[in-house]
């Protein structure tokens, strides 16, 4: 994309869909550039929503976490892969029966809150949902494999194999848990719901009456954030503050704009309107 066409697209920008981990913060550390960037968006009357594949926390927890960083948002400004999963499951209809969940209490509560019955213990479920379970139990994993191996539907909330952290550890994420289930059962998920699946952006477009072209998707991950932008027809902005995987892969999804961080993206938006 040429600089002038990129500038034209930025001039039409009405909303920014921001990734969280690796884009606005890393682990417990908010980037210095995040608050000034959001202030600029407020000043230019550009809306923003935080769109994360991390469904281990409830939307309310994200609102509280952002408030601790001095960022005031309403619940509707948070979309997680749990929301996208609920939308997907709702379209399957009521005959799916109860759901066996590999996930945090927050994911189970989100599904239960949307009216789905959560299968516990040995009750036969209609479907298995696998999310980012940060307290994964071996017995639960075995039981999920048992049901999936017996032909129950297998839904994954998102594809990420690890979650960025500032701690000296690797946070094994949904994609890796699903790979383990697939290795054990030979079954792949029927759907992987979060980014880059464009359905995660649907509530943002609907709420604000926008089309993809009026939205920028900003994130650190080429295979989720930037691929989402491509599939949704949005403007894809890659920041270099998080996951650098795939940056040397010629086959990786191509961003419309690559910036060191949010400050430089803010400068590009401001320049497009100067
Ligand atoms: Mg990220």
Give the helix/strand layout.
Layout: H1 3-11, E1 15-18, E2 25-26, E3 29-30, H2 34-43, E4 47-52, H3 59-68, E5 78-80, H4 81-92, E6 99-102, H5 105-113, E7 127-130, H6 138-149, E8 153-156, E9 162-163, E10 171-172, H7 174-185, E11 191-192, H8 202-208, E12 215-219, H9 222-232, E13 235-239, E14 257-259, H10 262-272
Parallel strand pairs: 1-4, 1-12, 4-5, 6-7, 7-8, 8-11, 12-13, 13-14
Antiparallel strand pairs: 2-3, 9-10
Bound molecules: magnesium ion (MG).
Structure description:
The protein has about 270 residues and is α/β, with parallel strands linked by helices. Helices cover about 40% and strands about 20% of the residues. β6 (about 100), α5 and β7 (about 125-130) form a beta-alpha-beta unit. The two termini are about 20 Å apart. The relative contact order is 0.17. Bound molecules: magnesium ion.
CATH topology of the largest domain: Rossmann fold
What CATH architecture of the largest domain would you give? Answer: 3-Layer(aba) Sandwich
The SS-based structural class is: alpha/beta
Percent of residues in helices comes to: 25-40%
The oligomeric state of the chains shown is single chain
Poorly predicted regions are none
Number of continuous helical runs: 10
What amount of the residues lies in strands? 15-25%
Ligands, ions, cofactors:
magnesium ion
